[in-house]
Write a structure and sequence with these properties.
It is built from 1 helix and 12 strands, in the order αββββββββββββ. With 142 residues, it is mostly beta strands.
């Protein structure tokens, strides 16, 4: 009885900390939220102080593409939404995924390493602000 109870507790703990969910055959989905300041690097003029919030979701498909959904708020106001299917890029050691997307502000990569999600535009140029990069950070929630 005690061994059975230990097995049930172990399975419950493993299930509760799993970082990915299986969707359609061959699809793995990650979800999270944006947190903290937007970090600008190498700007030609001062960039605004923005605190990011919002949600993100990435579904990886076995054929090599990824469905990405992003909804970002900056200082509590809607900032940007993005959705679509895009190409996966080669992931580095420790990364779950890297996805490349072209957006109005420049080339965007979204990536997940451990529980840290990164939304990075490099180079970044929009609304008269030109920087080497703009990075929005997030965390994995499920």
């Amino acid at each position: 009885m005690r061994r059975w109870l230990s097995a049930v507790v172990c399975v419950s703990v493993i299930a509760s900390v799993a970082v990915m969910t299986a969707g359609a055959a061959g699809t793995t989905t990650y979800h999270g939220r944006f947190t903290g300041p937007v970090v600008y690097q190498g700007c030609k003029r001062e960039a605004p102080d923005l605190i990011a919030g919002g949600t993100w979701s990435v579904a990886l498909h076995e054929q090599g593409d990824a469905t990405v959904s992003v909804n970002i708020f900056a200082n509590g106001e809607h900032h940007v939404s993005l959705g679509g299917t895009f190409s996966q890029l080669p992931a580095k050691k420790g990364e779950f995924f890297v996805v490349g997307i072209q957006v109005e502000a420049g080339p965007l990569t979204v990536s997940l390493k451990g529980a840290a999600f990164t939304y990075r535009i490099a180079p970044y140029e929009v609304f008269g602000i030109s920087c080497q990069s703009a990075t929005y950070s997030g965390v994995l929630t499920k």
